[in-house]
């Protein structure tokens, strides 16, 4: 395995194994021919609504033992960082005691590329139409990562990661839209990626070349391109993720030459895995609703008489934001067992962490890389900390509403800083020494204060623009860093999960 500071190389066999774990059914036609993957596992996909333990669509998960990763080219994984509005898949396993634990969080941008089109309320990226949502009743509100505050801040040619919900709006191959949950502008593109349901798959042409549609995008799959996992069929309706170098996209014709296509599919009862339980959990926007079938984020589901539907006060239909669980039936199709309308409940955001960059004048602070603005009627409870007022360094729990720029807090409760290896804490200060080989640095919060020794592993996330070389070069300078990780009982050792340059607004 090739290991670098921020990237872990994976062998082809490992990729195939990873895909076998992270599989999902795409489209109502999947499974009708018995050619799906023979692996049947559960897959949980949703939108991050809280941090301090990761919260996905209102459900909290202990992420202390979880790796966070993202693939940029389909063959390597890069250490990632979870933020509000990210679309993620959650992979669970069991620890030595047999307890279920969250082992892996995969970041799932719907499209990574350059803005090639822009209107007042949409952008086009790799042939995908991206819109935003400001109404919490319609699902997660679109969050823009600083310095962005809205679509108007994006220019043609900007590189972006777009996390989004996919909604089918009609029966045609281009009748899909992406409703963004988070948009991030990137400084560079190591490659492009786009996910969606295959449509208009062509028959093999000269040299074995094939093509298909993802929305308005035409994907060309030359004979030399890899199709993963090995032996899987490429069919209309199946959900895929396409990887390619940036140079392989023609914005004039909306044609992309793929270097790798990952087919995200599950096996059927006819594929040799009959009797193996398979469950799916997914939150997204209902599309193509008929009352007996619908599509949810590219996955076709059946609605039957025994499907439990929780939708107080209103009937389900296209555009509803729901969380669904399903099981694979004997014909290889997903049968919904429960559908719950999330509505405004999904818009409640929660953050836990160390308060920083407090401005009494503006009524704002930063928490877990999120700008928090106090609502005029916000309830502030500092009793547990015996603090006279909000201040940098307090450990707080915040609840409120997601906004385009962060979170508007309705409650702020101060709490004693938790201890133990499952608690993610933050510390900032000046770098005294740094050794990339030993994976260790020392830092001090203030003159005369205690020295904190920070260590890290391959899973360390360095926030742009920080690199390992730049981190080492900070030793002895006046630039501060912020470290997030687990703290020893004596407060003098920290195992870092994330390091970033610290900046303040005042």
Question: Any overview of this molecule?
Answer:
The chain is mostly beta strands and 506 residues long. It folds into three domains: 1-343, no CATH class; 355-414, no CATH class; 425-501, Beta Barrel (OB fold (Dihydrolipoamide Acetyltransferase, E2P)). The protein is built from two helices and 40 strands. The chain is globular and about 70 Å long. The two termini are 44 Å apart.
Q: Notable features of this structure?
A:
single chain, 506 residues, mainly beta, OB fold (Dihydrolipoamide Acetyltransferase, E2P), 3 domains, five-stranded mixed β-barrel, five-stranded mixed beta barrel, 2 helices, 3% helix
Poorly predicted regions are: 1-42, 266-277
Q: Rg to the nearest angstrom?
A: 23 Å
Overall 3D geometry? globular
In terms of DSSP E residues, the strand content is over 45%
Please identify the structural class as seen in this structure. mainly beta
Overall average residue pLDDT: 85
Oligomer: single chain
- Per DSSP E runs of 2 or more residues, the count of β-strands stands at 40
Q: How do the strands of the widest beta sheet line up side by side?
A: 23-24-25-28-27
Tally of separate helices: 2
Largest sheet: 5 strands, mixed, barrel
Gap between N and C termini, in Å? 44 Å
Total domain count: 3
| Helix content bin | under 10%
């Amino acid at each position: 395995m090739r290991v670098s500071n921020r990237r872990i190389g994976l062998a082809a066999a490992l990729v195939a194994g990873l895909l076998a774990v992270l599989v999902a059914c795409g489209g109502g036609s999947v499974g009708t021919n018995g050619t799906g993957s023979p692996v049947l596992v559960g897959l949980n996909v949703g939108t991050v609504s809280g941090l301090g333990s990761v919260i996905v669509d209102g459900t909290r998960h202990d992420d202390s033992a979880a790796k966070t990763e993202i693939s940029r080219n389909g063959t390597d994984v890069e250490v990632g960082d979870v933020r509000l509005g990210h679309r993620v898949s959650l992979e669970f396993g069991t620890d030595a005691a047999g307890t279920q634990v969250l082992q892996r969080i995969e970041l799932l941008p719907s499209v990574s590329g350059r803005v090639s089109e822009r209107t007042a309320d949409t952008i086009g990226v790799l042939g995908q139409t991206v819109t935003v949502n400001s109404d919490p009743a319609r699902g997660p509100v679109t969050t823009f990562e600083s310095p962005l505050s809205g679509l108007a801040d994006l220019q043609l040619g900007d590189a972006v990661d777009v996390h989004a919900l996919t909604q089918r709006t009609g029966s045609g191959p281009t009748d899909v839209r992406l409703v963004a949950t988070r948009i991030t502008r990137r400084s560079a593109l190591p490659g492009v990626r786009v996910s969606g349901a295959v449509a208009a798959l062509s028959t093999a042409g000269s040299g074995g070349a094939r093509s298909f549609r993802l929305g308005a995008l035409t994907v060309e799959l030359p004979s030399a391109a890899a199709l993963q996992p090995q032996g899987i069929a490429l069919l209309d309706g199946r959900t895929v993720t396409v990887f390619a170098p940036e140079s392989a996209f023609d914005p004039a014709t909306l044609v992309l030459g793929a270097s790798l296509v990952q087919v995200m599919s599950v096996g059927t009862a006819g594929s040799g895995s009959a009797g193996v339980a398979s469950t799916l959990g997914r939150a997204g926007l209902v599309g193509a609703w008929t009352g007996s079938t619908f599509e949810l984020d590219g996955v076709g589901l059946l609605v039957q008489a025994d499907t439990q539907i929780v939708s107080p006060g209103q009937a389900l239909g296209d555009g509803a934001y729901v969380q669904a669980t399903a099981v694979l039936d004997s014909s290889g199709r997903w049968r919904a067992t429960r559908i719950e309308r999330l509505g405004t409940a999904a818009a409640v955001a929660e953050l836990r962490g160390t308060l920083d960059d407090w401005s009494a004048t503006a009524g704002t602070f930063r928490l877990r890389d999120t700008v928090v603005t106090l609502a005029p009627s916000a309830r502030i409870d500092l009793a547990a900390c015996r603090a006279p007022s909000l201040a940098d360094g307090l450990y707080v729990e915040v609840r409120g509403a997601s906004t385009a720029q962060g979170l508007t807090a309705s409650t702020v409760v101060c709490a004693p800083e938790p201890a133990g290896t499952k608690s993610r804490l933050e510390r900032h200060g000046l770098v005294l020494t740094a050794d990339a080989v030993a994976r260790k640095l020392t830092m001090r919060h203030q003159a005369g204060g205690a020295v904190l020794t920070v260590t890290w592993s391959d899973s360390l996330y360095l926030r742009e623009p920080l690199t390992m070389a730049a981190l080492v070069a900070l030793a002895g300078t006046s630039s501060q860093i912020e470290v997030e990780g687990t703290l020893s009982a004596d407060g003098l050792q920290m195992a870092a999960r994330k390091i970033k340059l610290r900046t303040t607004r005042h």
